[in-house]
Fold this protein.
Amino acid sequence: MATREILGKQLEFDDDNHLKNGKDWNPELATELAKEEGINNLTDRHWLVINFMRKEYEAKGDAPSIRKLTKESGVETKELYALFPKGPAKKAAKIAGLPKPTGCI
């Protein structure tokens, strides 16, 4: 587990570099985490995925997998990979302040 300062706050991250305490998350932090992942501008489509993931996590206690994202978020697989290159479920979960989805490598 590591602690890093982002936006003037000390935040804890797990071994997969996901935010440890989801209550520390906010949209401004998401923007900073996205920049760390090489996404310099979060569009409405990014936010659609992020908000879907947060809603699913809140309801079920686990971040959705790529399969669930493509079936239920309204964003197709090809677009997910364009929005969140190299592992969309894991990267989107990280930006959304959630743990790595179960089943992600």
Observations:
- Residues 2-95 form one domain.
- The CA atoms of residues 54 and 96 lie 7 Å apart.
- The chain is about 45% helix and 10% strand.
